[in-house]
Amino acid sequence: TFIAVGSALMGFGDPTDGAHIAALGDATSNGCFGRMRSQMLSDPTGVRILKERPQIGFNEHEWAQLGSLPEGSFGRAYFEQMRRNGITWSSRPPVRFVDNEEDAYMLLRYRQCHDFYHTVLDLDISVLEELAIKVFEWRQTGLPVGLIASAAGPLRMPSDERARFFADYLPWALQCGAQAKPIISIYWEEMWERSIDDIRKEMGVWLMPSRNSVTRAENSTARID
Predict the structure, then answer these.
(1) 92 and 117 in contact (C-beta within 8 Å)?
(2) Model-level pTM greater than 0.70?
(3) What count of other Cβ atoms lies within 10 Å of the Cβ of residue 176?
(4) What is the pLDDT of residue 19?
(5) What does 117-176 look like in DSSP terms, one character per residue?
(6) Nearest to 12 by CA among 2, 20, 23, 1
(7) At 103, is the secondary structure helix, strand, or coil?
(8) pLDDT of residue 7
(9) 195 in Cβ contact with 112 (< 8 Å)
(10) CA 155 to CA 21: how far, in whole Å?
């Protein structure tokens, strides 16, 4: 509890503060993995991920290979997104305060794949866009950290950005997160050479109207039950 409160205060209003957001996630996620576990166990790929326990990591050659993939591929889009925002895959903190081993892995997987969500949703790392990602993640996973961050963040945003968040980004993130296929059951490492637009359609995600590519829910090929 003290960790959660301290992390919330230190990361208050700044969902881009990865270290404190991660600590907040660790401290508030125990007992909240039911939705993620159900999603993974009901999907053959999710079951395989839980069994194989992959972790995101690259050597120099593998990273350079992503940058040489064709434009429009998921791997190239991920490489460009990371380079554009000056971040690295190795910046995601480990899980420290989750007791159950399988729960800890699910949280680690969710955390390590966070930048893939930025890539697929075509959102960078401004506070406004990071908040939208947090809302999307909360609707997908049910983990409290996304809800806490998205509730606290707008309070310290400039009024014009706050108005944009509530008028445009929040409704989109809630709907898109609710309708998309579970992101935790996607084996992202097997997607590098695939078209990012095809992945978006299969996932059932669409972009903000101001973005290009798949911009409407009805353009998705995902089945919404």
Answers:
(1) no
(2) yes
(3) 23
(4) 62
(5) HHHHHT--SSHHHHHHHHHHHHHHH--HHHHHHHHHGGGGS-HHHHHHIIIIIHHHHHHH
(6) 20
(7) helix
(8) 54
(9) no
(10) 16
Residue type, 220: S
Contacts of 135-139 with CB under 8 Å at 24 or more apart are: 135/169, 135/170, 135/173, 135/174, 135/177, 136/173, 136/176, 136/177, 136/180, 137/110, 137/177, 137/183, 138/177, 139/173, 139/174, 139/176, 139/177, 139/178
The C-alpha atoms of residue 51 and residue 54 are separated, in whole angstroms, by 9
* Residue keyed to tokens 């039911």: 34
Length of the chain: 225
Task: Output the six-digit token pair for 34.
Answer: 């039911």
Please check whether residue 125 is in contact with residue 114, taking contact to mean a CB–CB distance below 8 angstroms. no
Q: How far apart are the C-alpha atoms of 74 and 199, rounded to whole Å?
A: 8
Task: Tell me the average pLDDT of the chain.
Answer: 84
**DSSP letters along 35-74, please?**
HHHHHHHTSHHHHHHHHH-------HHHHHHHHTSPTTBH
CA dihedral 101, 102, 108, 109 (to 10 degrees): 160
pLDDT average, residue stretch 46-64: 96
pLDDT of residue 102: 95
